[in-house]
Design brief:
single chain; alpha/beta; Rossmann fold; 4-stranded antiparallel β-sheet; binds adenosine-5'-triphosphate; binds magnesium ion
């Protein structure tokens, strides 16, 4: 479980988050709603450890899931704010960026192979790293599933990829490393209808009781693919309302209104 308690965050002298408290439980899915500028991306960046943001108060802890099978007990809590972004990633947090960065000089195949090998090693120390040849063979079926041309493997990570292609590569990363907490920051914006369906269907197949999907969106179609258990509404850096799925349904029909 990720527990956020009274979180206060600043960036460039500006108070952005104020007294944010909420929990993300591993076997539930969540939706984070709010008008533009309400603090949703800030919260997700802070969870991932983005250096642009300064945490000025509060705490975030993560408790690792119990190693034995369900029922879903959770182990001791660790201080997330003390962890580097790579440690956060290895403890199971995955952020799908609102704006996906392009990285020149890093080949997609090498990037995917590296994260896959690190992730497998984290699960099992004995794991023998896949060679470039074996990895290419292994990753092929995932590429086909996502309708991504194999030629992409030789290109630089996200450089000149279209919005939809970048998104699919992110989904591929999720498939490869199996994160526990998947934060999707507006992954439904900028996708054509077919790409959206492919991405949403893949997410549906990734969603399980062993992970938690946290959806940030201004549209609601994605909620037809992924059931959410809890909905939080942010306003001016605060959580101002929470409820079940019906709260998202209400907002999708009526807007934020007086919230
Ligand atoms: N580095 C920064 N310096 C100053 N202000 C910032 C910084 N980063 C974000 N902000 C401000 O913090 C507020 C929250 O931004 P954030 O990106 O978290 O909103 P959001 O809820 O994700 O909005 P949207 O729905 O438009 O994506 C905004 O007013 C934004 O301008
Ligand atoms: Mg945002």
């Amino acid at each position: 479980m990720i527990q956020i308690q009274n979180l206060e965050v600043q960036a460039g002298e500006k108070d952005i988050l104020k007294w944010v408290s909420l929990d993300f439980e591993l076997w539930k899915n969540y939706c984070l709603l709010g008008k533009n500028g309400s603090g949703k991306s800030t919260l997700s960046s802070v969870l991932m450890g983005h250096p642009k943001y300064e945490v000025t108060g509060g705490a975030i802890t993560i408790s690792s899931p119990h190693p034995t099978p369900l029922p879903k007990g959770e182990g001791e809590a660790a201080d997330l704010l003390e962890m580097e972004p790579d440690e956060r990633s290895q403890s199971g947090i995955f952020l799908s960026f609102q704006n996906i960065p392009e990285i020149k000089g890093v080949k997609l195949s090498e990037y995917l192979r590296t994260i896959f090998n690190i992730s497998e090693k984290g699960k099992n120390e004995e794991f023998k790293e896949l060679s470039p040849f074996l990895f290419k063979r292994f990753v092929k079926k995932h590429l086909e599933e996502l309708h991504i041309d194999e030629k992409f493997l030789d290109r630089d990570l996200n450089v000149w990829f279209s919005g939809g292609e970048k998104r699919k590569i992110e989904i591929l990363q999720m498939k490869l490393i199996g994160p526990k907490y998947i934060i999707l920051d507006e992954i439904d914006s900028g996708l054509d209808l077919d790409a959206f369906k492919t991405v949403a269907t893949m997410l549906q197949s990734i969603s399980s009781e062993n992970n938690s999907i946290i959806i940030i969106t201004h549209y609601f179609t994605i909620l037809e693919y992924i059931d959410v258990d809890r909905v939080f509404v942010m306003k001016d850096g605060n959580i101002v309302k929470e409820g079940g799925k019906e709260l998202a349904d209400q907002i999708s029909q009526e807007g934020f209104g007086e919230i």
